[in-house]
């Protein structure tokens, strides 16, 4: 017993020591955890206090505006603001649908409300990438079948695309019944005119073997679809009528400025100085507000990506083609000023063609003020985008490697050049509007004066040949007579429209439009002839624009591409003229009931 007890005592002592060690270790670990947690809490409280002090410092910083301080203090302000906007416009849309007297006007408000709601939701939920990913899966699946099984060869796909395009155009042109404004024989002439234009561009192409027929076929089909949508469908008429109504109402605000400077009676005069020029200046200033908020860049980017993806053109070509109807012949090239020295010759040709094929938004508003049909002008500007791409790539195919192939990048404004607020942006726009309006005024004055001088010399020579009123316009009107015939106007109005085209080419489109509105016999033409003339003159393809284009592009390239620009600018001028003429021919093919169109 005495031998065992010491062992037990030792064992128990050992266990007690071991237990004490474990408890001490546990206490030590608990103490460490407490220290860590306390240090974390201390660090957390320190960060909170730092953040609070940082917010306090930011809010109290004198160089921040009150709106910036408010945004920092309430970081979720954008979500609540978007919820408020969504609820407000939803109630506005429902009020239109519910009321009987406004229910028939549901289309435009519904489109506006739907686009706004999709935009608001997509800012906070990635619904668009999710939906488009499934669309891409379906698209890739069917295109893979077409490319690998149905039409594995490129020539087979081109033939199929040509057949589909021709079938669509023929069915859309000749199936509808005849009306007073649209006889099938006139539609056939317009259709034949498009074929002649394509054939003429093909045989004069710089490299027919390099033509990208995908761009040509797709561009013609898009141009026809836009014309069909505007001139044949009620929805297309409503959409473009809404746009044109906004443009006409915009003129009223410019008239208020003219009335302030002069008088109410003077502001209502249909003179170039008191209608077109103030509208141009005001529109440029107004559009700079949307430039400041990034809306114009966003719209141009979407248009550019669409045409880049569908027509397989380079990024630089897509941007300038999409921007030309919005900002004009010079400003569209400024969007890609960093790429200008490195563009291929075909890209330079296409950029100039896009500028000659359409008119800018500022000039568009001014011409609507003359009393021209706004739907025709707006739709012609949109049709010019695919038309200029198709015509230019047919006449001047790409043979070099473009540095902007496969990407569309809209340049951002440098922080130093960006206006500090919307008022400064509007002020810059007003100054630029004054320069543009002044340039238009001086150019019209000088060009018309120069043409009058040349016509005076020609008239002096012509009197000895018993030719009365020999002039550049008269000679060109006879040269353009076959071209005008192929547009499909009434037979007794071919010479009238040909003279309008001659004045547009020699002088500018304003002179032609002014003759169409105010002078006989042009203002007494039929509805079909007036609409075709409106489409055919809607472009900057005139001799005066050549000087503007040379000046802008040579400045942007520092004269490094002056030789290439000068070598292809006349070709681009002709292509721009052909583009607007094809728009007029397509309008002649699809016009049907013009009862709701106020042509003059």
Topology:
Layout lengths: L3 H57 L5 H8 L3 H22 L1 H4 L3 H18 L2 H24 L3 H21 L9 H20 L9 H20 L1 H28 L2 H4 L4 H22 L1 H17 L3 H13 L3 H4 L10 H13 L3 H9 L4 H22 L26 H41 L9 H8 L1 H5 L8 H13 L2 H10 L8 H10 L6 H14 L5 H29 L10
Molecular structure report:
- The structure is a single chain.
- With 600 residues, this protein is an all-alpha fold.
- Among the domains are: 77-149, no CATH class; 181-212 and 226-440 and 541-590, no CATH class.
- Helices cover 76% and strands 0% of the residues.
- The chain contains 26 helices and no strands.
- It has helices at 4-60, 66-73, 77-98, 100-103, 107-124, 127-150, 154-174, 184-203, 213-232, 234-261, 264-267, 272-293, 295-311, 315-327, 331-334, 345-357, 361-369, 374-395, 422-462, 472-479, 481-485, 494-506, 509-518, 527-536, 543-556, 562-590.
- α9 packs antiparallel against α18 and α20 packs across α22.
- The longest helix is centred in the N-terminal third of the chain and has 57 residues, at 4-60.
- It is globular.
- The model is unreliable at 1-22 and 44-55 (pLDDT under 50).
Give the gist of this structure.
The protein contains 26 helices and no strands. The chain has 600 residues and is an all-alpha fold.
Spell out the key features of this protein.
600 residues, disordered N terminus
The percent range for strand residues is: under 5%
Number of helical segments?
A: 26
Tell me the overall shape: globular
Question: What is the alpha-carbon Rg in Å?
Answer: 33 Å
Number of strands: 0
Give the biggest sheet.
none
Q: What is the multimeric organization of the chains shown?
A: single chain
Computed structural class? mainly alpha
- H/E series, N to C? HHHHHHHHHHHHHHHHHHHHHHHHHH
Q: Averaged pLDDT, please?
A: 81
List low-confidence stretches. Answer: 1-22, 44-55
Helix content: over 70%
